[in-house]
C-alpha cells in the first residue's frame, strides 16, 4: 500500500473576529462571542476594549477559556466597546507577538485591528514599508494594514482605512476600533471571508448594541439579532450616529469561500443568507444522487461529516448510524506528540462502534480529504471492526491546491489529490469505492443550476486552482 504523509495537526484552520459597540461589559460579551467562534482558531485569543479614554488589552496563546480563565482579566478590560480575535496563523508563527487584535498608537491616537483572512501581497508591501522606515512588531500580514493606515496622508481614519484597503490584495474581514470613529467593519471587495452585523435588543435608545462577527453563531450566544451580512467591499462605521455604510470599491462581484459551507463554519450559522447546515445536507443529497451505491449503513466521519451524511442517508434511503464515535476532549492544546503517539492520533479522536459496523456494507461520508491521514485511519478502524465493504463519499471536489486567502491548508506537495489519481487515492485510503461531489453538483446543492450559473459565485480555488485574487507574493511580482 502507498504510504501517506502524516500530520500532527488539523489540516484546516482560520480565524474568528468579533466586536460589540455600545453595551456595558463589552469585553465579557466579546469573550462569549469568541467562545462561539472557537472552531475558527485555537492557537491564540485576544480582546481590546476602549472605555472612552484609554484602550485596554489582554491576549494570550491558547483557547478562549484558557486565555480568559482568570476572572480578574475581565475587570481589567472596561468599556462599552470591545473587539476580539481567535487565531490560527496564515502568516507569522505561533508567538505571543503574533496574537491579535493588533494594537498601535499613531497620529490619530490608538488603533486596534482584528483580521480574518490572508493578504496575498503582504510580503511585497512589507518590504516596501520597511524600506520606508516602518518597524514591524509582528510577523503577521495584518500588521501591513496598521502601517498603511499610519503613514497615509488622508485626514480621517476612514479615508486612511480606504487608502490602505486599496493597496492590499487578498481576503480580509476586518474589525477595527478607534477612539473617535468607533468600531469599523470591512470586507474585501469579493467578500471571500464572512462578516455579519447583528444587534442586541434593549440598547436602541442610545444607538448601541451593535455587533460584528465572523458567523451568526456568535450573535446567538449573546442573544443578538442578525441584521445582515456586511457586503463584499463594504465598510460599516458604527458609532453614536448609528451604522454608516461605505462602498469604496463599487461592485466587483462576490466570491464567498465555498469551503465555509463545506467544512469551516459552524453548522448552526447562517452565512450569506444560507444555513450552513442546510448547505451541508443538500451537498450530501447531491452526492447520493451522483454516486449511489448499494450499502447497509451511512456513517459520518465526525464532526464535520455529520450533516452531509444525514443528507446522503435521507436521499439514498439507507439508514444513518453513528459508526464512529468522536472523543470531544481532544483539542489542539495536546502536547506535540512523539511518532508513536502521533500514529495513534486519529484513534485518540475517533473510535469505531463495532455494533454498527460488523458484517455491514458501510458508506463513510466526510467533507474533504487533505493529506489522507484521517480517511486512511478511519477506514482501517472500520475494517478492523468487521465491516464487509467500505465506501468513501466526499462532499467536496478533490483538494488539489492550497488556500492563500485565510485557511491554512498544507502546501500542494502534501495534498493527496494533488499527487494521486482517483484510483491511486482509493488504493491509498484502502476503500472499495471512492467518489467526490462534482463541481456542478456542489453548486446545485447551493442553489445554482451549475458552476457558471450567474457568473462564478464562490471562490473554489483549492479545488479548481482558479484563484480569484492575484497571488502577488507567490508570483514574485512587486507592487510599485
Ligand atoms: O485528510 P486529512 O489531512 O486527514 O484531513 C481531512 C479531515 O480533516 C478535517 O476534519 P478535522 O478532524 O480537522 O475536524 P472536524 O472534527 O471538525 O471534522 C476534515 O473534516 C477531514 O475529516
Ligand atoms: N487565519 C486567519 O484568518 C489569520 C489572519 C492573519 N492572516 C494572521 O496570520 O493572523
Ligand atoms: S481557496 Fe478554498 S478555502 Fe481558500 S478561500 Fe477559496 S474556497 Fe475557501
Ligand atoms: Mg473532519
UniProtKB/TrEMBL annotation:
<feature type="binding site">
    <location>
        <position position="304"/>
    </location>
    <ligand>
        <name>Mg(2+)</name>
    </ligand>
</feature>
<feature type="binding site">
    <location>
        <position position="459"/>
    </location>
    <ligand>
        <name>[4Fe-4S] cluster</name>
    </ligand>
</feature>
<dbReference type="InterPro" id="IPR005854">
    <property type="entry name" value="PurF"/>
</dbReference>
<comment type="pathway">
    <text>Purine metabolism; IMP biosynthesis via de novo pathway; N(1)-(5-phospho-D-ribosyl)glycinamide from 5-phospho-alpha-D-ribose 1-diphosphate: step 1/2.</text>
</comment>
<keyword id="KW-0808">Transferase</keyword>
<feature type="binding site">
    <location>
        <position position="403"/>
    </location>
    <ligand>
        <name>[4Fe-4S] cluster</name>
    </ligand>
</feature>
<comment type="similarity">
    <text>In the C-terminal section; belongs to the purine/pyrimidine phosphoribosyltransferase family.</text>
</comment>
<dbReference type="InterPro" id="IPR000836">
    <property type="entry name" value="PRTase_dom"/>
</dbReference>
<feature type="domain" description="Glutamine amidotransferase type-2">
    <location>
        <begin position="15"/>
        <end position="241"/>
    </location>
</feature>
<keyword id="KW-0408">Iron</keyword>
<dbReference type="Pfam" id="PF00156">
    <property type="entry name" value="Pribosyltran"/>
</dbReference>
<dbReference type="InterPro" id="IPR029055">
    <property type="entry name" value="Ntn_hydrolases_N"/>
</dbReference>
<keyword id="KW-0479">Metal-binding</keyword>
<feature type="binding site">
    <location>
        <position position="367"/>
    </location>
    <ligand>
        <name>Mg(2+)</name>
    </ligand>
</feature>
<feature type="binding site">
    <location>
        <position position="257"/>
    </location>
    <ligand>
        <name>[4Fe-4S] cluster</name>
    </ligand>
</feature>
<keyword id="KW-0328">Glycosyltransferase</keyword>
<keyword id="KW-0411">Iron-sulfur</keyword>
<dbReference type="Pfam" id="PF13522">
    <property type="entry name" value="GATase_6"/>
</dbReference>
<feature type="binding site">
    <location>
        <position position="366"/>
    </location>
    <ligand>
        <name>Mg(2+)</name>
    </ligand>
</feature>
<keyword id="KW-0004">4Fe-4S</keyword>
<dbReference type="InterPro" id="IPR035584">
    <property type="entry name" value="PurF_N"/>
</dbReference>
<keyword id="KW-0460">Magnesium</keyword>
<dbReference type="InterPro" id="IPR017932">
    <property type="entry name" value="GATase_2_dom"/>
</dbReference>
<keyword id="KW-0315">Glutamine amidotransferase</keyword>
<feature type="active site" description="Nucleophile">
    <location>
        <position position="15"/>
    </location>
</feature>
<feature type="binding site">
    <location>
        <position position="462"/>
    </location>
    <ligand>
        <name>[4Fe-4S] cluster</name>
    </ligand>
</feature>
<keyword id="KW-0658">Purine biosynthesis</keyword>
<protein>
    <recommendedName>
        <fullName>Amidophosphoribosyltransferase</fullName>
        <ecNumber>2.4.2.14</ecNumber>
    </recommendedName>
</protein>
<comment type="function">
    <text>Catalyzes the formation of phosphoribosylamine from phosphoribosylpyrophosphate (PRPP) and glutamine.</text>
</comment>
<dbReference type="InterPro" id="IPR029057">
    <property type="entry name" value="PRTase-like"/>
</dbReference>
Amino acid at each position: 500500500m502507498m504510504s501517506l504523509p502524516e500530520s500532527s495537526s488539523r489540516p484546516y484552520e482560520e480565524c474568528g473576529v468579533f466586536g460589540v459597540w455600545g453595551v456595558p461589559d463589552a469585553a465579557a460579551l466579546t469573550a462569549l462571542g469568541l467562545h462561539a467562534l472557537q472552531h475558527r482558531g485555537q492557537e491564540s485569543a485576544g480582546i481590546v476594549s476602549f472605555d472612552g479614554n484609554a484602550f485596554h488589552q489582554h491576549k494570550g496563546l491558547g483557547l478562549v477559556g484558557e486565555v480568559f480563565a482568570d476572572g480578574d482579566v475581565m475587570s481589567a478590560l472596561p468599556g462599552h466597546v470591545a473587539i476580539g480575535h481567535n487565531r490560527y496563523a496564515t502568516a507569522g508563527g505561533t508567538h505571543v507577538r503574533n496574537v491579535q487584535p493588533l494594537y498601535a498608537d499613531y497620529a490619530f491616537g490608538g488603533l486596534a485591528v482584528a483580521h480574518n483572512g490572508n493578504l496575498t501581497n503582504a510580503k511585497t508591501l512589507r518590504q516596501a514599508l520597511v524600506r520606508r522606515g516602518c518597524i514591524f512588531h509582528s510577523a503577521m500580514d495584518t500588521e501591513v494594514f496598521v502601517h498603511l493606515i499610519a503613514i497615509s496622508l488622508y485626514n480621517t481614519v476612514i479615508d486612511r482605512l480606504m487608502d490602505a484597503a486599496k493597496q492590499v490584495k487578498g481576503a480580509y474581514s476586518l474589525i477595527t476600533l478607534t477612539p473617535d470613529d468607533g468600531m469599523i467593519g470591512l470586507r474585501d471587495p469579493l467578500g471571500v471571508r464572512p462578516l455579519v452585523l447583528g444587534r442586541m435588543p434593549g440598547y436602541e435608545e442610545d444607538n448601541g448594541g451593535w455587533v460584528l462577527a465572523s458567523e451568526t453563531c456568535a450573535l446567538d450566544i449573546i442573544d443578538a439579532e442578525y441584521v445582515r451580512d456586511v457586503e463584499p467591499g463594504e465598510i460599516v462605521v458604527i458609532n453614536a450616529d448609528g451604522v454608516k455604510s461605505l462602498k469604496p470599491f463599487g461592485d466587483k462581484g462576490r466570491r464567498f469561500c465555498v469551503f465555509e459551507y463545506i467544512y469551516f463554519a459552524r453548522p448552526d450559522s447562517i452565512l450569506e443568507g444560507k444555513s450552513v447546515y442546510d448547505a451541508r445536507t443538500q451537498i450530501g443529497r447531491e452526492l447520493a444522487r451522483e454516486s449511489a451505491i448499494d450499502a447497509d449503513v451511512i456513517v459520518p466521519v465526525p464532526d464535520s461529516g455529520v450533516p452531509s451524511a444525514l443528507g446522503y442517508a435521507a436521499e439514498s434511503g439507507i439508514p444513518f448510524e453513528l459508526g464512529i464515535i468522536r472523543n470531544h476532549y481532544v483539542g489542539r492544546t495536546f502536547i506535540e506528540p512523539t511518532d508513536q503517539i502521533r500514529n495513534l492520533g486519529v484513534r485518540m479522536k475517533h473510535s469505531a462502534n463495532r455494533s454498527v459496523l460488523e458484517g455491514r456494507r458501510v458508506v463513510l461520508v466526510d467533507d474533504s480529504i487533505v493529506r489522507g491521514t484521517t480517511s486512511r485511519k478511519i477506514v482501517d478502524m472500520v475494517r478492523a471492526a468487521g465491516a464487509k465493504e467500505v465506501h468513501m463519499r466526499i462532499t467536496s471536489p478533490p483538494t488539489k491546491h492550497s488556500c492563500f486567502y485565510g485557511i491554512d491548508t498544507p502546501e500542494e506537495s502534501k495534498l493527496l489529490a494533488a499527487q494521486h489519481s482517483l484510483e491511486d487515492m482509493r488504493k491509498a485510503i484502502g476503500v472499495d469505492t471512492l467518489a467526490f461531489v462534482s463541481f456542478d453538483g456542489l453548486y446545485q446543492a447551493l442553489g445554482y443550476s451549475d458552476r457558471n450559473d450567474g457568473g462564478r459565485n464562490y471562490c473554489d480555488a483549492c479545488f479548481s486552482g482558479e484563484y480569484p485574487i492575484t497571488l502577488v507574493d507567490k508570483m514574485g511580482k512587486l507592487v510599485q
